[in-house]
Amino acid sequence: MNIFKIIDEITKFDRDAVDRLEHATRRSFMTKFSRNLTAAAVPAVFATVVNKAYAQSPQAVDVLNYALTLEYLEDEFYKMGNAASGLIPAKYQRVFAQIGKHEDQHVKFLKGALGTAAVAKPGFDFSANGAFSNPFGNFDTFVFLSHAFEDTGVRAYKGQAGALINDPALLEYALQIHSIEARHAAKARAILSEIRSNPAIKPWITLNEGSPAAVYAGDDNTVQGGVDIRGIAGKSDKAVTEAFDEPLTKDQVLAIGGLFIR
Amino acid sequence: MKKTINTPRPPRSSEESKALAMVNRRFFLRSAGIAATTGAFLLGACKGDDMMADPTVDLGSGDIGILNYAYALEQLEAAFYTQVIASPYAGMSAAEMSILTDIRDHEIIHREFFKAALGTSAIPGLEVNFSAINFNDRASVLGTAKVFEDTGVSAYNGAGQLIKDAGYLLLAGKIVSVEARHAAIIRDLLNPNSIDFAGDDIIDGNGLDLAKTPAMVLPAVAPFIKTMISGNNLPKKS
Fold first, then answer.
1. pLDDT (tens digit per residue) in B146-173
2. Most buried residue, A69, A159, B51, B110, by CB count within 10 Å?
């Protein structure tokens, strides 16, 4: 593979690419290619180097590292769960494999955008210091945690949209991850509903119902755009609160996530 | 004879330029009711009394334009699901009825929210065109629902960076995740417990969901909306 020919090609479409490669530092860039990379791995690595989401502002770096921490958590959770023999019934294995694949992709994507500014992966304890016994031996516990992590992820990303308002490319990437977490959440909730035979657990969040309480706190908000829309179109409070997902602040999210970080 | 109804300003990228040209041509031809291949549209579209005002609904510019854009899409979805519940497809299960009723209610709430928020800046009610949908057929209904939800997600994701006000951005953010939940469940109804709820057909190698500009979304929904819509004055990517 001729790296310089590829750079020429990219600069035809992206004039900033060369500058960004320089910014990535020639040394770290070339190091990525001097290691033993398979041909399949190279495109992904290269994509991250010229990724337009290259985080530059300190605030953007903070937001992305926060996101990365949550993705590390989910990634580790699903890697362990998907590897746990006998945990996931055959019926649901494709679902959790797909979710896990995305979380792995998100980790790589965010690390690529952060470059050397990426935080390291923390250690995790998915039992939350004994609060949840056997998360990878009991499917109900696993799905319970899955739905909680996904719903937290949705609310966490949502809470940071405003912080990225001056970084249009990063904002869009954050939105594109955020909606994936929502898809995950919907399906995880549907599975939880099924295995618990509980139709009250819908793919969407009703009022502030759900457990752990901290994950769903405030989701019963009915004030949108400064107006209390209770009763709008004659719809119930349940429907009104389901129609909007609410953000969580970084502190709120880290309090939840922190339970699982060693 | 109707004049060309969508005169584009010079777009910034060739991709947008092509898409806008597509919108213009399709909208004009669609309003003429004649397929592109016939070539007879000029004559066929002309009637003696056709010298009326341009009926195109302009979404507007800036944040208001984006809110109207969202309002238009929610109108479409609300109308669709209202029809779905009013005339349920053959074999609709109780569980499906419950899901689709919830989704209908969410879309109605979204629609009414935007209408109220926009006030006098709101576009009028749009006339929809569901002639291509067989409401008695599960595959047709759910297939259309899937398109609408995925399109809605892509529209909100693509519009985010075009919004200037942080409050509006948050509102869009609160809605898009609900649309994504809808999309996941509709897709799962079509292919239960497969990967389709968050399928490889729409998610790229970085695990990113769709994000499309108005120039890409408007042509995609045009077949379902009779009213001519112009997004020519909407903000564009910088």
1. 999 999 999 999 999 999 999 999 999 9
2. B110
Which ipTM score applies to this complex?
0.82
Does residue A155 contact residue A253 with C-beta atoms inside 8 Å?
A: yes
Kindly state whether residues A10 and A90 are assigned to the same domain: no
Comparing CA positions, the residue from B61, B58, B33, B57 lying closest to residue B45 is B33
Q: Residue B177 and residue A177: Cα distance in Å, rounded? A: 10
Say which DSSP state B2 is in.
P
Taking the CA of residue A62 and the nearest CA in chain B, the distance in Å comes to: 19
Whether pLDDT at A35 is above 90 = no
CATH number among 1.20.1260, 3.40.50, 3.30.2010, 2.60.40, domain B58-230 = 1.20.1260
pTM: 0.81
Q: In terms of domains, do A252 and A153 share one?
A: yes
Q: Is the pLDDT of residue A29 over 50?
A: no
Under an 8 A CB cutoff, do B174 and A245 touch? yes
Return the domain boundaries, chain B: 58-230
Size of interface A-B (CB pairs under 8 A): 185
Nearest to A175 among B110, B160, B183 (CB): B160
Query: Do B110 and A204 contact (CB within 8 A), yes or no?
Result: no
Q: Which of B216, B217, B195 is nearest to B207 (CA)?
A: B195
